[in-house]
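Annotated sample (chain length 487).
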Amino acid sequence: MNIPCEYINEKFLPSGTVIELKKRLSQKRNHKHLKSGLDQMTAIDKMEKTGKKQESDSSEDFNSELFLLLFSGVAAFFTYFCMYAFRKPFAAASYANISGWEFTLDFKTALIISQVLGYAFSKIIGIKVVSELRPLQRGRMLVILILFSHLALIAFALIPAPYNIVMLFFNGLPLGMVWGLVFSYLEGRRLTEALGAILCVSLIVSSGAVKAVAAYLMLEWKVPEIWMPATVGLLFLPALILSTFTLSRIPQPNQADIRARKQRVPMTNEMRWTFVNETNLGLLALIIAYVFLTAFRDFSDNFAAELWQTLGHGQAPQIFLTSTLPVALVVLASLALLIFVRNNYRALQLNQLLVAAGGAICITSTLAFELDIVSGAAWMIGINIGLYIGYVPFNCLLFERLVACTKSLGNAGFVIYLADSVGYIGSISVMLYKTFAQPNLNWLQFTQQLSYATGFTCILLMLLSLLFFRRLHRNSSSRSRLITSPV
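Output written by the structure step:
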């Protein structure tokens, strides 16, 4: 019988009954309070378990991302690093006395132009091939391209001059697509900035490292100049195959990556034209700036041996590597900060400002060297810091964010190869201009002039592209021209 305590009238009940009823009601209340307390404890326990599960999931996500960063970054770094063993070692030699070469154009310049022509053609081919390539085809294609380039180096040593010049064209032809294939594993992820920064360190240090190995082989092992490129390639071939195998095991971007950076898909011809029409003048300004940076970078890299000799460091092969290490550290620190910028439009702006800052560093470093404020070695490090701060964003980070901002579906590989195909034509033009228009101007003076031209061009064109994409971004609310990620 359920009788509320306030309705019990003690006058109409025996005293024993009253005591018994009160006792039972008190026990019932205590039981109810106990049950309520147990329910609260159960709820708290569930909340604690949920919190611990969320913390566990968060910890697992962090560990997973850290593992992906290290695994993917190291694999991409060594794949591209090893590729340079097939592309740049010949630049460590002077090829001053080559039997059978009797032309006004010196043999080494002819080699560089031949290889860059192959590289430029490769970039043009890559506009279609890299942008349309399916993920499962990438690893096999990487190895085939490298093996083909190595066969060309062997043929270069076997065929006498001047006919072996053609072999450098066939050496550069497959190598031009390696960057796009490697970066295609990394793009479209929340960690792309960090992975791209790691890959770009390889871009900075690999050339100097393989040239240091090449110089060592010629000085210590007495390997002939003509056989040196094939020898260096052979030494790096096993490591390249292993790193490519590792790279092919990287998982595809997950749903969180797709939400943050947009899905990356193979591009048809119509999709490529849609992207170009959407970005038009802004993209044109970016590409022209990249032409100057590519020409400057290729010239200073290909003729680094001559520049260091002019500056008094010709007998120190380690200078090729040691001078690039501070450059890599400064550039890596600058670019790695962009991983914390989630808004794709803001990150695009910061990339453009970095390019302009690189141009300013080139100008101030060269001016300081001409005024005898810094040494020749410090000047070389300074202009390379400025050069790579401007050059590196174009090879992954800037175009990665540009693709993420646009409404057009596609991938960064297309934009990179579109810019590269024009950039290497500029590189060839600069070498031909130096050889025929200013043959009496020494390497040092020409590099100083090129540093000024590149610096001022980058500052001006980045200002124009900033204004263009700013206007495009402002129009996004009415025309949906740009899609930005939440801050």
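Annotation: The radius of gyration is 32 Å.
Annotation: The chain has 18 helices and no strands.
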